[in-house]
Amino acid sequence: MKQIAIIKKIIKHYKKIGIGIAIMFLLSFFVNVKLILFIVLAIFSNTWLALLQMKFSMPSDFELSTLAVVIATLVFGLKIGIFVAITTKLVATILRGKIIIDNVFQIMSYSLAAIFVSWFSGGDIVVLGLLATFIANMFMFTISQFLLGVSLFDNLAYTLTNVFGNFLFFTIIANPIYLIMK
Fold first, then answer.
1. Distance between CA 51 and CA 85 in Å, rounded?
2. How far apart are CA 37 and CA 69, in angstroms?
3. What is the pLDDT of residues 73-127, one digit of tens each?
4. For residue 164, how many C-alpha atoms fall within 13 Å in the half-sphere facing its CB?
5. First-last CA distance in the chain
6. Dist. CA 131–CA 68, nearest whole Å
7. For residues 113 and 133, what is the distance between their CA atoms, to the nearest angstrom?
8. Inter-axis angle of helices 101-119 and 65-76, to 10 degrees?
9. Mind listing the pLDDT tens digit for each residue in 128-165?
10. In degrees, to the nearest 5, what angle opens at C-alpha 33 toward C-alphas 31 and 36?
């Protein structure tokens, strides 16, 4: 039943998705096709995960933006890494229909991760990814706690689910995806 609701939401936004695909197709004449496919898959996967999380009422922050940002930065450079940081979060936020100030800071945290990874681009992707996850989460935890007024319980729930999810993503799927993209 939940899958049907997600499919209905995608159908509801088919024009936006179609425009996005058309833009990516046009860009493919000027940009690396592998890059375009990676960005589209990163946006789709992160959006799907965000829509799936909407179905649960508990605070959680499983996302694929950090993974996508780290891989994009290592393979395509800092500018593309920051572009992926912005687009993966922005598209998911727009399609969820819930844009809040927190999203701006999340984009900033992913951008910080991209900057960090660009400094150590010769390192191991798993180590870099886990360190980037730590940096992004410490930034978000601090902002959420002291600027946005998120409760300590919710803040810990968001942070710990994000760290756990990214630990799984980086230790299980980061290397194979990175090797394909290189």
1. 18
2. 14
3. 999 999 999 999 999 999 998 888 878 889 999 999 999 999 999 999 889 999 9
4. 9
5. 38
6. 14
7. 7
8. 40
9. 999 999 999 999 999 999 999 999 999 999 999 999 99
10. 80
Say if CB 47 and CB 92 are below 8 A apart.
yes
Residue 113 token pair: 């991760």
Where does residue 29 rank: exposed (0-12), middle (13-18), buried (19+ CB within 10 A)? exposed
CB atoms within 10 A of CB 20: 17
- The two three-digit tokens of residue 31, written as one number: 């940009």
Amino acid occupying residue 12:
K
- Tokens for 138? 């410490």
Distances (CA, A) of 120 to 72, 88, 115: 14, 23, 9
Model's pTM, two decimal places? 0.83
